[in-house]
UniProtKB/TrEMBL annotation:
Entry keyword Ribonucleoprotein: no
Transmembrane segments: 12-30, 42-62, 82-103, 115-142, 148-172, 200-224
Residue stretches making up the DUF6534 domain: 159-244
Protein name: DUF6534 domain-containing protein
Source species: Kalmanozyma brasiliensis (strain GHG001) (Yeast)
Compositional bias of kind Basic and acidic residues: 350-359
Length: 359
């Protein structure tokens, strides 16, 4: 029973535990991102509903095994209708999540090749998940599930492969966006770390699930299979909600370099008119230059707030504000500061404020 109902029970417990995270993540999303496009908000709602249905089906078949048919050892060796619904529900959730990331890769890379590969892998995985559900309905006994192992290999194999393509594409694109400036690179490093963490979880669970299914006739693989749908939902929601934490951690740094250089790096800049400091015959007062480096997600309505260019969709927006030395200290109550200063370098100022409108 440990390697039949026991493994199933552990898998369902992990499913329910992760479902709690999904609900909390969805709540955080709807509270913090009320200005997201309606399509995006409806998409998150669809995932939450599908995730809830998956949790209900898992609870139903667990109840049927442990309560309704308690002590029935023959019933414990075969699947039922509620159990058979798990592969197709997991496939639908994974397909939807992977399509979202394919769209995101397209927005970042501006290339159709990699998103097309991701979408193809997701479609094959979904069709194979549907085939797995059909196989479970036909071959009822757990020990005989090896009869349709080909379709399971396609389902979990393409799911893992698609996750690897998504993670690799995002990490490669983000790494290319490094500028050499500490503030921007810190944000990019956080994004890369988050992408690796969320992508690695689903990939590892899918691979381990497949290996255990092929090497054992028990239900041991269900420990990793039943939580799979929840991992996909949590990976997407955590990616969306990362705009909160990364936005709060963004700092302001001085930026130099032309707009064309920044465009090649995938960085957008908004710069005010530079004063006449350090020019011949101009005011010798030094400037205080503040640059806002903030996370910018392509699902935000904030794109519409700018006279947007394509490079605004690459993930980083840098907003530069310049003011004179005297203006800065007048605001701080230092109006008596001497106006004739020797030429000096610009002063670097850091601030913990985040520009939420640019997220």
């Amino acid at each position: 029973m440990d390697l039949s109902l026991g493994c199933m029970y552990i898998g369902v417990m992990l499913n329910v535990w992760l479902y709690g995270f999904s609900i909390v993540q969805a709540y955080i999303y709807y509270v913090n991102f009320k200005n997201d496009k309606p399509l995006m908000r409806y998409f998150v709602l669809f995932l939450v509903i599908a995730d809830s249905i998956n949790a209900v089906f898992d609870q139903v078949f667990m109840y049927q095994y442990l309560v309704s048919n308690f002590g029935n050892l023959v019933y414990a060796t075969k699947s039922n209708r509620a159990f058979a619904a798990d592969p197709v529900m997991t496939g639908i959730i994974a397909f939807s999540t992977q399509l979202f990331f394919a769209w995101r890769v397209y927005k970042l890379m501006h290339s159709k090749i990699m998103p097309a590969l991701i979408a193809t892998g997701a479609a094959v995985s979904l069709l194979s998940a549907i085939g797995t559900t059909v196989g479970v309905e036909i071959v009822l006994f757990f020990q005989e599930f090896q009869k349709f192992q080909v379709v399971v290999i396609l389902w979990l194999g393409f799911a893992a492969l698609t996750d690897v393509l998504i993670t690799g594409s995002l990490v490669w694109t983000l790494n290319k966006s490094r500028t050499g400036f500490a503030g921007t690179d810190d944000v990019i490093t956080k994004l890369i770390r988050m992408t690796l963490q969320t992508g690695a979880l689903t990939t590892v669970f899918a691979i381990v699930d497949l290996v255990l299914f092929l090497t054992s006739t028990t239900t041991l693989h269900l420990v990793f299979n039943l939580p799979l749908a929840k991992l996909y939902v949590n990976s997407l929601l955590s990616t969306l909600n990362a705009r909160v934490t990364i936005g709060q951690g963004a700092q302001q740094y001085t930026m130099e370099g032309s707009n064309s250089d920044n465009a090649r790096r995938g960085i957008s800049t908004t710069r005010t008119k530079r004063s006449g400091a350090f020019r011949p015959g101009g005011n010798n007062q030094p400037n205080v230059i503040r640059t806002q480096v903030s996370m910018h997600d392509d699902v935000e309505n904030g794109l519409g707030d700018y006279n947007s260019q394509d490079n605004f969709e690459t993930g980083i927006h840098i907003k530069t504000i310049e003011e004179t030395f005297e203006e800065r200290h007048e605001r701080d109550g230092m109006r008596g500061y001497p106006s004739s200063q020797e030429s000096s370098l610009p002063v670097l100022e850091k601030s913990s404020r985040s520009d939420k409108d640019s997220l």
